[in-house]
Design goal:
Chain lengths: 278, 155
């Protein structure tokens, strides 16, 4: 599988916003029109989105890879560029460079159980992998999606989670850190969902995306039940600028997150995750 | 009349008792009761005497902090195979939070006074029981600390 930037990787391509949707209080989705050629990408890859006059920011692609006619990004408003993007309307233009980076191991996972563990907005970079697996459902074993959020109001893609849960071939469990009585679901950390998901730890590929601390807790729990390091994949987030491994802003030990990642096998970066301040 | 033998079997089916010898489990079963709760039932309220502790066989409960003038704030939900109510081990033996049933829940419960009497006479059984509680408490504490990090917050 491969999907690379079509033209000069440093030159942004202009794309118009065809749909803008509010997801949560601080999170929104924009769908960009890539034109007739479409936009091919692999689950887990990211683009550099350019808000003209403000700057550029790396954003994971969160649409269905089987639908290249629409380029989807779900974005949390956390800084100047994402704030500028949040104010854009349908028809406004964005500069796009990409796709960049490594992908989720959806090919290697065929024949195994697959466990998705997402926290907060970490569900967005995993959605293309979920879509791919559901499109090719018969190629995989048990399929588990575990999702943790801060509160019921912070659950991303609520409608889709409900749709996935409604399938008879997919196990979905959601939890929040705290809730009022109007919430009838789980309360507690996402790691508590792992024990009852009932997958085969020796024949499973796990894909994790969320805050780094949540990924560390999750990996610890997975190791305890016998999932090997080689079968665990994480998506790392660092300060990516050029996106082609030249500028060094996203250096992570001997790796560049933009080029060697953002998706890494845990076995490959385990020692780096133990280094404080890296 | 309650059949102790039947309760012993219920205890044996719960993961908390995995590997416990028959004699110890039968001794504990002498303090046990089989119970069923409907949605909305309050099994315990903060500040009440902690007279029993519970092993969930099926169903789920919410641990809640009571907030004056408001509905309770759920801090954790527990499910099949979980244990709750270790306030029976720690003076002044009072519940630290409310326990509300969120779906039809079947539990086996142990009566605390009965149990404390037995454990005073049988230190080995006491050690066995406390050794099983410690990992549960440690895991719950670790989870609570994870929640404290507020890891999904905007940073």
């Amino acid at each position: 599988m491969s999907a690379k930037a079509k033209t000069d990787p440093m030159v942004p391509e202009l794309m118009s916003i065809s749909v803008r949707r509010k997801e949560l209080a601080d999170t929104f989705t924009i769908e960009l029109d890539p034109g007739k050629a479409g936009f091919e990408f692999l689950p887990g890859q990211f683009n550099m989105l350019y808000a003209f006059g403000v700057g550029e920011v790396p954003i994971s692609i969160s649409g269905d890879p089987a639908e290249p006619e629409s380029l989807v990004h779900t974005i949390r408003d956390v800084g100047a560029v994402t704030n500028a993007l949040s104010k854009m309307k349908k028809g406004d233009q964005v500069g796009v460079r990409g796709p960049f980076g490594s992908c989720w191991p959806v090919g290697e996972a065929e024949g195994s159980d697959v466990v998705i563990v997402a926290g907060g907005i970490g569900l967005a970079p995993l959605r293309p992998a979920i879509d791919h697996i559901l499109t090719n459902r018969s190629k995989y074993g048990r399929f588990v999606i575990l999702y943790g959020a801060r509160s019921p109001e912070d659950i991303l893609y609520m409608n889709q989670l409900q749709k996935w849960r409604g399938r008879l071939d997919t196990y979905v469990d959601v939890t929040v850190d705290h809730a009022g009585r109007d919430w009838a679901g789980n309360v507690g950390v996402v790691t508590r969902l792992i024990g009852r998901a009932n997958f085969d730890p020796r024949h499973t590929k796990v894909m994790i995306c969320g805050p780094e601390i949540m990924m560390r807790f999750t990996i610890k729990e997975l190791n305890q039940i016998g999932v090997s390091k080689e079968d665990i994949y994480v998506s790392m987030e660092r300060n990516m600028k050029c996106a082609i491994g030249h500028c060094g802003h996203c250096q992570f030990g001997g790796h560049f997150v933009c080029k060697d990642g953002p998706v890494f096998s845990y076995a490959r970066i385990e020692s780096l995750l133990q280094v404080r301040g890296l | 009349m309650v059949k102790v033998e039947g309760l012993d079997k219920l205890l044996a089916e719960h993961p908390f008792f995995d590997g416990m010898d028959d004699a110890s489990r039968k001794t504990l079963a002498g303090c046990a009761r089989n119970e069923c709760f409907d949605v909305g039932d309050m099994i315990a309220k903060e500040g009440q005497p902690a007279e029993r502790f519970y092993f969930i066989r099926s169903g789920s409960v919410a641990l809640e902090f009571h907030t004056p003038g408001q509905d309770g704030l759920i801090i954790e939900t527990l499910h099949d195979g979980d244990v709750f109510g270790w306030s029976w081990m720690v003076p002044p033996y009072e519940w630290s939070y409310d326990i509300r049933v969120t779906e039809l829940t079947r539990v086996t419960s142990l009566e605390a006074t009965c149990l404390r009497k037995k454990l005073k006479k049988d230190n080995a059984l006491g050690f066995e029981l406390y050794s099983r509680f410690m990992p549960v408490i440690a895991k719950r504490l670790y989870s609570a600390r994870q929640q404290l990090t507020d890891m999904y917050a905007k940073k």
